[in-house]
Amino acid sequence: MRSARFNLLIDLNGTCHIGDTPTLGAVQAIQRLRAVQQQQPDRVKIRFCSNTSKESSSSLLSRLRRVGLGVELVGSSDVFTSLDAAYRLVARQKLRPLLLLSQSAQTAFRGDDALARDCFFAHADLDPERLDAQNAAKLRSCDAVVLGLCPELMTSKWLDEAFRLLAGEYDAKQRVALITTHRGTFKSMSGACNDPVIPSLTSSSPDDLCFRHQAASGRRASETIVCGKPQPAFLQECVAGMIGVDESMSDFTNIIVGDDIVADLGQGTWQLGLRRVLVRTGKYRNGDESRGDRFADETYDSLASWIDHFIANDLNPK
């Protein structure tokens, strides 16, 4: 009988570290987990997850180095962010997106030259109303809008362009996709809003802006693709990058570990059948294990205590 195989999705901030300080025993526990992984490389795959939508993975890695998580513990390919999920989604669906993302976040889309050529990289110093003919045509041909945390692009001009794309004012051949890198709970709208009020927005929250764009373009919240955890798009893209092309999520035991019962272990995790582990660090508050739409499957005092239990009971059962 084949031994069980595991995909581990481990939250970073609040679980592995809080600010620039590692949680109790986290660095040493990850060292132990890596040592076991080297002995059983086909059984354990690990991704460290973050919902950051303002900075690239390289910026995030710099912070992890300060925490004490060196490259031997968390390499560049081991980190998966909401930006990575959005990038994978755009690449897989061969979309041509308008990127309303920070300059740091946009670097996630510049690594693949072919994909970068199909992206429109918005910039605070660029006026969409004063583009040359070639760039204006490229902007109007976008078939997706990717929205992240970027206050400098939350201006009436760029938000107007996003709305026009989403509302189909540029005669798109198919409905333009709305993708957000920010996790959040969106209220469902039954119909379109008659007055989009896009130029008068006072909030730069991706949640609020996404909600208003949904209403103004007459789409339901369920039609927006949210690429932050714990949404299915994030989890599916993360696991897809961990397994082979001929494998599926159901071939593995998929475990997510986090400190937030909603933001880490929320609806998408149990919809997709992940094993949900809550740790009592970071955002954890007393009683959280019994809150939320579904209670946590397991609860531990820290990431370190869960890792030790996982090694002893899942990888090396007696």
From TrEMBL:
InterPro entries to which the protein is assigned, alphabetical: HAD-like_sf, HAD-SF_hydro_IIA, HAD_sf
GO MF terms, alphabetically ordered: phosphatase activity
Gene Ontology cellular-component annotations: cytoplasm
Protein name: Haloacid dehalogenase-like hydrolase domain-containing protein 2
Source species of the chain: Moesziomyces aphidis
Organismal lineage: Eukaryota, Fungi, Dikarya, Basidiomycota, Ustilaginomycotina
